[in-house]
Amino acid sequence: MADEPLDRRISREIRERLKQSRAAVLEYERLEAALQALDTMDGDTTTKSRPRRPSTPRTRTRAPRGANREKALSAIRDQPGISIAQLSAATGITKNVLYGLTRTLTERGLIERVDGADGAVGFRIIEPAGAAAEPVEAAGDGAAGSQATEAPKRQRRTRRSREQIAPESSGSEVQPEPAEHADPV
Which of 13, 96, 156, 165 is a good FRET partner for 30, with 20 to 30 A between their CA atoms? Predict the structure, then answer.
């Protein structure tokens, strides 16, 4: 065998390995046929695979537009000085949603931040001047002339808008830095 050419030796080794692996291939085909037979008895004609995960695993459905705002305003009206945690427990709205909602309602002048009894920040409804007996109207409900439709909406700043707001100074003037977002309650 030492004088056997290299190509013949490789060819012989490949044939030997094919003979050895043929048994495994036959076993694989028999097991696959048995599995298909079992699946057919269960009424399933295809091989079982893992079920696909849904593309968006939502556990909750979204609330209708303005529903969270109405719930929050109602709870704040019923319990002045209510904190975010208490508001979340009372309304079922997540704290993350409430942080943004209370910030928006504060900016629109519908509610104000107050110090709670336990040191936590709470919220209460702002009564319009001269309208103490009138009920507070919800923001953005589409009514013409409401306070919420006249108030400007909060705008997000992007890197480009910050650069446009604060152009390079000549060195003699000191430009104030844009205020960072306040702590989210």
Answer: 13
pTM of the model: 0.41
d(CA 37, CA 11): 39
Q: Tell me which residue range forms the domain holding 38.
A: 14-45
109 and 76 both lie in a single domain = yes
**Amino acid making up residue 148:** A
pLDDT along the chain (185 residues), means of 10: 82 90 89 87 62 69 88 93 92 93 94 83 84 49 46 58 52 54 54
pLDDT for 180 equals: 57
Report the pLDDT value the prediction gives residue 173, as an integer from 0 to 100: 53
Q: Is the same domain home to 109 and 71?
A: yes
CB-based contact 47:53 (threshold 8 Å)? no
**Cα-based distances in Å from 114 to 125, 144, 146:** 10, 30, 24
Which three-class secondary structure state does DSSP give residue 96?
A: helix
Long-range contacts of 116-119 (CB under 8 A, 24+ apart): 116/81, 116/83, 117/81, 118/83
Q: What is the spatial distance between Cα 118 and Cα 127, in angstroms, rounded to a whole number?
A: 24
Give yes or no for a contact between 35 and 46, defined as CB atoms under 8 angstroms apart: no
